[in-house]
Design goal:
Elements (H helix, E strand, L loop, with lengths): L1 H4 L1 H13 L4 H18 L9 H11 L5 H20 L15 H4 L8 H6 L9 H12 L5 H6 L5 E2 L4 E5 L5 E5 L2 H13 L22 H18 L10 H14 L4 H8 L4 H4 L7 H9 L13
Antiparallel strand pairs: 1-2, 2-3
Helix pairs in contact: 2-3, 2-5, 3-5, 8-10
Length: about 300
């Protein structure tokens, strides 16, 4: 029923996500979310959908979900209506003015401290060690998303300039400078690159089967690394570490080293500086240091006669 009632907007959204370079997992998740939303609408024309409709859907259908899950649903709806505007099927985005969950907005990202981040390379071993270290470094010390690492092509890498050109969210191109150590591993990977199954395949990272290394394979490499790391560091056991946490760690490290937040925004490929602001953590030790830097005068107690 939904497919018949909303055939054109559904196809438009699928095409829009493909053009925007969305990861396959994101396309599936967003597709399911939009199907649920259209089922909820029960035939109401999309041009008649208002902000109140979006809020009602999120409240009624997502009542038992976490703030994070609710905000993910909202993100899907925002993208859906943006796609319809781009294809001139509607004129306004009713989901754009709906606010994210406050709890989710205030949630601190999980990240590794500088020493912990530096030690991650020690847990990369095996036949494809150089390749796996390069995957790690691109996320931990260049701030790439796992999907951006997956999509990286040979033509995206400039060895002499030590830069890579990344296709990020919203199909935006971003030139990222590489640290010398990262560039060194990129050069190693290029020399050791396996022969692709299709000779014309431009993928920078090739799997053992000769195909572009998938997002799932990259995640598996990082997951195995964290598994070994946690076995030796009990303090990390409770943390939900992943590829994206390496990106969190990169942003936090940049800001800790007093890098201008506007530069961090560009390196991270954020559309808004508000997104970058979530990485401005304040350490308890930093609080203590700030208070300790203040000279408090010696006060003489007042004695009562």
């Amino acid at each position: 029923m939904v497919e018949e009632q909303y055939e054109e907007p559904v196809k438009a959204f699928q095409l829009w996500m493909k053009q925007a370079g969305y990861a396959d997992t994101t396309k599936k998740e967003y597709g399911r979310e939009i199907y649920n939303f259209l089922t909820y609408l029960d035939g109401v024309e999309l041009r008649h959908v208002k902000k109140l409709t979006i809020v009602s859907y999120l409240v009624q259908e997502k009542e038992q979900l976490s703030d994070r899950a609710r905000n993910r649903s909202l993100a899907a709806l925002r993208s859906f209506f943006k796609a319809l505007i781009d294809f001139e099927l509607i004129t306004t985005n009713p989901a754009q003015e709906v606010k994210k969950s406050k709890t989710e907005r205030n949630r601190k990202p999980i990240y590794l401290e500088q020493e912990q981040l530096a030690s991650t390379v020690n847990y990369m071993q095996g036949k494809y060690q150089d390749r796996n270290i390069a995957l790690l470094l691109l996320m931990a010390y260049s701030g790439l998303r796992v999907g951006e690492v997956h999509r990286l092509n040979i033509s995206s890498y400039d060895e002499d300039k030590a830069t890579i050109t990344v296709l990020g969210k919203g199909r935006k191109w971003n030139d990222i400078p590489l640290a010398p150590e990262v560039n060194e591993y990129m050069k190693r990977v290029l020399k050791q690159r396996l022969q692709p199954y299709r000779p014309q395949d431009e993928a920078f990272f090739i799997s053992q089967k000769g195909r572009r290394l998938s997002i799932r394979q990259i995640q598996k490499v990082i997951s195995e690394m964290f598994k070994q790391m946690k076995a030796e560091h009990a303090e990390l056991e409770s943390l939900q570490l992943s590829c994206h946490k390496l990106r969190h760690s990169f942003a936090t490290l940049m800001l800790r080293n007093q890098v201008d937040i506007r530069i961090v925004k560009e390196l991270m490929g954020h559309s808004s500086i508000d997104t970058t602001m979530i990485y401005t953590h304040i350490h308890d030790e930093e609080k203590k240091h700030a208070v300790a830097s203040i000279t408090v005068p010696t006060l003489q107690p007042v004695t009562k006669e």
